[in-house]
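call fold(seq) -> tokens
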Amino acid sequence: MPAPLVVFDLDGTLVDTAPDLVASLNHAVMQANLAPVTYHDLTHLVGHGARAMIEKTFALRGAPLSESDLDWQMKEFIDFYHGSMPGEIHSLSRCH
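ret:
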């Protein structure tokens, strides 16, 4: 019998990664000359993955987003996010 596997979803539960998400999202969307998002904006954008967050950001700014642009935005977001880890991650117990 294999050992049991336990998986924890830390993002937003035990660790506040909002500053990292804002930085990564802004890096990506500013490449497309969109205005940066704020932490307040982020609360309406998160919850359905990075693709949805980028799509919602473009919609929030009233900007068109083609499928190829979305792919490019995803690459920018992921590359920045991975390259800046551990970034500004804070424990929720310290932030709130």
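The mean pLDDT is 84.
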